[in-house]
Amino acid sequence: MLVYLIMLCGIALIYHLCYITTWVEKKKKRNFLIWSGIFIVLIMGSRWEGYQFADTGMYVQIFNKSKSYGVEAFLGDATRDTGYYLMVWYLARIFPSHQWFIYFECAFLIFSVFIFIYCTTDKPLFVVFLFLGTGIFTFYLSAFRQAFAFSFCLLSYLLLQKVSQGKEKGNFFRLLFGLLLFYIALTMHASAIVFVIPLSICLIKNYKLKIFLIFLLASLIVLFRSSLLSVGNDAMDKEYEIEANFSILGFIIQTIIFALPMILLLLAPQKKSSGNAFLSQETYYYNLLAISIVGLVFYLLRLYTQEFERVAIYFTIAICSLYPSVLEKTLNKKSENELIWIVCIICSALLLWRVSRFGAFIFFWQK
After folding, report:
1. How much is the CA Rg of the chain, to the nearest whole Å?
2. Which of 52, 93, 49, 94 is nearest to 71 (CA)?
3. Greatest C-alpha distance within the chain
4. pTM for this predicted structure
5. Exposure string over 142-177, b if 16+ CB within 10 A, otherwise e
6. CA-CA distances (angstroms) from residue 46 to 42, 59, 126, 263?
């Protein structure tokens, strides 16, 4: 737990150093995300593969196994997610040891998320703490295939959102490259198909229609949850059970965190004007809001089966990025700052509580 506490304090320190020492306003956010990303990767990439992230050891074994096979023989055992296994085979020829592969996975995930944060919010420290504390971070450090799929999905979304903003030079190539990234995501993990929802959202320009369709979709998801689970089992070639085994207190706390932006939008009077650059861009704001609604619905369905949380994680990053805009839109400055502090403390506590179940952090050089 001490390592994670040092990581959280280090991220906060890097933020203050970047915002104090960087004179150019536009570079402050960029510098913070770069240096804090490097800091996180150096720590988490240095973990021993046997440290209590359940699937890490399995993915390391696959990586090491691929060194002994030709590409055809190695892919012959893969019935799905062939893009991931092909990537692993090539990386095994580049990296001398599996530790470099762990660094690579961590770096690809962190910087994909941080690029998304850079493009969708002007309060990066707050969103980084939400990302670390709400389960996205710890889940994807273990689930390598879905982590790569998620990362490619985020990059695809950013490109397609740029296309949806208007007729800019190069939009055709952004569209093609965005769709290509989404296709790669599908080859990494079959669950990436759910990200067709955010990609469709960002291509709908009428925001009222967008929100209406999302509420309709959310209702259908709840009504046909059993059918969705069956479809997921077929696609994943697994038998996920209708069972939810989890900490009810953790679920309640995290549900409140995820639901709070939507509650504030419904109940709090909204400001007519704001200095927030993202609030002035309806495309960004309403896209994140629509995706957040779907993410909240999927997360609540964790009560039905825990596997819906695996789906929700594709969407809940949008809630993290939406948070600052909603707080600025609905609260006065004092209340906004107080709530940011409270949520950051809760997210830090959630992260420390999660990792406390893993035992002491073990660096690879300790083994």
Report:
1. 20
2. 93
3. 63
4. 0.90
5. bbbbbbbbbbbbbbbbbbbbbbbeeeeeebeebbeb
6. 6, 16, 25, 40
Query: Considering Cα of 339, then 345, then 346, then 347, what sign does the dihedral take?
Result: positive
Q: Specify if 365 maps to a domain.
A: no
- Is 366 among the domain residues? no
Residue 101's domain comprises 2-360
User: Rounded distance, CA 109 to CA 116, Å?
Assistant: 11
- Tens-binned pLDDT, residue by residue, of the chain (367 aa): 899 999 999 999 999 999 888 777 778 899 999 999 999 999 999 998 888 666 888 899 999 999 888 888 888 877 788 899 999 999 999 998 999 999 999 999 999 999 999 998 889 999 999 999 998 998 888 889 999 999 999 999 999 888 877 666 778 888 899 999 999 999 999 889 999 998 888 888 777 788 788 889 888 888 888 777 776 665 555 555 545 556 788 888 999 999 999 888 888 666 655 555 444 456 677 888 889 999 999 999 888 877 888 889 999 999 999 999 889 888 888 999 999 999 999 999 999 998 888 888 889 888 7
Backbone angles phi, psi at 78, to 5 degrees: -95, 115
Question: In angstroms, rounded to a whole number, what is the distance separating the alpha carbons of residues 288 and 307?
Answer: 23
Domains in the chain: how many in total?
A: 1
Task: Look at residue 367 and tell me if it is in a domain.
Answer: no
Neighbours of 188 (CB within 10 A): 25
Q: Are 165 and 143 in contact (CB under 8 A)?
A: no
For residues 356 and 359, give the distance between their C-alpha atoms in angstroms, rounded to a whole number: 6
Q: Is residue 239 part of a domain?
A: yes
